[in-house]
Amino acid sequence: MRVSNAISAIEVEQLVREFRKGPRAVDGIDLAVSPGEIYGFLGPNGAGKSTTVLMLTTLLPPTSGRASVGGFDIVKQGAQVRATIGAALQEAALDPILTGREHLLLQATLQGIGKAERKERADALLDRVGLSLAADRRVGGYSGGMKRRLDLALALVHGPRILFLDEPTTGLDPQSRAALWEEVARLAHDEGMTVFLTTQYLEEADVLADRVGIIDHGKIVAEGTPAQLKAEIGSPSVEVSAVDADGGERLAELLAGFGTPSRNGRGSVTVQLPGGEAQLAEIVRALDHADLRVASLQLHQPSLDDVFLAKTGRKLEGTADEQADEPPAPAARGRRGR
Amino acid sequence: MSRRRPRPVVVVDAESTNPPGLLEQIAAVGRRSVTRTLRQRALLVFPLVFPLILFAINGSSLSAATKIPGFPTNSYRAFALALPFIQGSLFVAVTTGTDLARDIETGFFNRLALTPLQGPALLLGQLGGSLVLACIQAVVYLLVGLATGVVIVTGVGGAFVLLALAILIAFAFGSLGALLALRFGTGEAVQGIFPLLFVTVFLSSSSLPRNLIKVTWFRDVATYNPVSYLIEGIRSLIITGWDGQALALGFGFAVLLLVITLGLASAAMRTRLVRT
Predict the structure, then answer these.
(1) Model pTM score
(2) Which of B5, B9, B36, B188 to mutate: most A Cβ within 10 Å?
(3) How many Å apart are CA A198 and CA A29, to the nearest integer?
(4) Do A18 and A75 belong to one domain?
């Protein structure tokens, strides 16, 4: 029996996880993910992303709070939650000695898929993730991208409605990353699968996620669509570079009519556009009217990095190395922190 | 990745699949474990070569020990053949533990934990590969012994009982390896225990019958060391004949060791396999 008839595929209320002798890894988060939505959970290493995923996938009991996944309570109905979800956790957890096909057949067996259907399912998934030719090769010889694709296929074996992907593209080359994004987008948009995706890549969240939650030090500091979040922190800006080095002064005078200009030291001037990008045309006309020749003119939209900066006072890019790692997954943790 | 539009693979309702029974789960995990073992030649070669090298060295260099009054046989090689079975069991412990620890470290264990897999199935299935290794080892040790002139005084029946006892002992030590892996979660911890186990084997009646060990403390340690009775159970089948007491003690201690290590490993599995 499901505990709620809520519309959300994932519902989280005041979820907390504390580790013994450690920080409060997740500190009272609330979120809701609609069916068929791709929810990007964005934050630096150690922010609490993986701990949240471990709790939502029933591998780590929460300290307090409640959450339901697919309508099932993660504490009281763990088995039902696991039957509803697929998960590809951090680092592709594969056996280098087994082949891709053997992985899928093992997973299909353990998920209770009938013997007659296992092979067909494995073949279909291998085809889907483009591993048919490598299906009978040992996984130890796979590239990082191939491992991640197999990881994704394994998460889909039993036809889950909700998919958890924990930093699925970390360490992948741009081509493999784009291919995985394409596949995840297909799952959500063509097949209606709900995807909960953690990432520390701004671009990934921006491109892929319908909505983004930004987590820092265990708390959600911002949530919304990428466009909403960017709009929240301000208007776009335009950066204009003069052809002549001494043209900067005239540029600044002209752009002062649109906002407060700032000189960038390379002859270029930046000005915020409170009226949005519609003001760009006015600027071009003003430049033309003043007969000011420019080398370049660039419109800068606020990025999620700007959002992160505005909400936390730090930039997200480059923080990965500064942050302490999150406590590892429970199975790898020994008996600490239970 | 393929660019053409894929056919949907989400064709079942995940909640409607029936979790497999315990035996099917054990078989699935066991099949993987056996495949892993058979594909890693080093896992097969070292446990075979190392004990047989020691057997060859002891069999030739310690043959003078048979001249000690009261020594139970005139062939030291026959006396020494019991030792490789025990040493092979130690390798089984390390192999089982290391494999399981690697699964924990790489997250494969978590992948399995997300399926309806039951803890006992994971443990027993994992030990399946170890049993295959133990069977191969035991048969090879026996064949090498026979090829070098050792005569099994209990005949063909005794050889089968010997194999059964050797596999039982290997199962018990394999469970010990699994226990260490589940308790500590690292391959290093499992491998770190290997020297200690090796010392335990040498502080037993592996080289001399207990009644002929002259150093009192050594004899006392060997008497209290259960490994002595495991060795003596195997050895009795090779050189003594059907010795009920030796066999009872050998099988008894093997079963006791298995019950303890498997029981503790099951408890450790419950702790490790935390799911809500």
Answers:
(1) 0.80
(2) B9
(3) 15
(4) yes
